[in-house]
Amino acid sequence: MTLGGGMVALGYLRMVTPVLPFQEEMIRRGHGWDDVAHHVSILRGSIAPAQGRRTWLAGNTYQDASRLDFNLPDHPGVFALNLRSRQNQYSVWPGVP
After folding, report:
1. Quick check: 58 and 81 in contact, CB under 8 A?
2. Residue pLDDT, tens place only, 18-42
3. pLDDT category, 17, cuts 50, 70, 90?
4. Ramachandran angles phi, psi of 29, nearest 5°
5. 57, 61, 67, 69: CA torsion to nearest 10
6. Residue 74 has pLDDT above 80, yes or no
7. What share of the chain is helix, strand, coil (3-state, %, to 5)?
8. How far, in Å, CA of 40 to CA of 46, rounded?
9. Can you say whether the dihedral through the CA atoms of 83, 87, 88, 89 is positive or negative?
């Protein structure tokens, strides 16, 4: 109980002042997606209209797919392939392919 209370207090203290030497990039893993979405938009714009086809987008994990979909301006719907990655919630639901 003391250890848990100490960890919570350390977390609150970290919000006020930098107690531990963490870099912000280590804490926030959601950076850089604006640049990725910008490059994907450029590629989609140069490929799809030229061939008259729809471009399908996919990420390896749900987190990658959702961040890409969120940061693209038209929110096109990005598939999560989950190839050779950890299991997700759908893996433990019976009857869900």
Report:
1. yes
2. 666 665 554 556 677 888 889 888 8
3. confident
4. -95, 5
5. 30
6. yes
7. 55, 5, 40
8. 10
9. positive
DSSP string, 11-35: HHHHHHS--S---HHHH----SHHH
Residue 58 has φ and ψ, to the nearest 5°, of -150, 150
**Cα separation values, 14 from 4, 19, 26, Å:** 15, 6, 14
In the block, tokens 């280590």 appear at 26
Whether 71 has a pLDDT exceeding 80, the answer reads yes
| Amino acid in the structure at residue 78 | V
- The set of residues, in sequence order, having a beta carbon less than 8 Å from that of 10 and lying 6+ positions away, is 19, 20
Of the candidates 36, 43, 47, 32, the one whose C-alpha atom is nearest the C-alpha of residue 72 is: 36
Question: For the whole model, what pTM was predicted?
Answer: 0.56
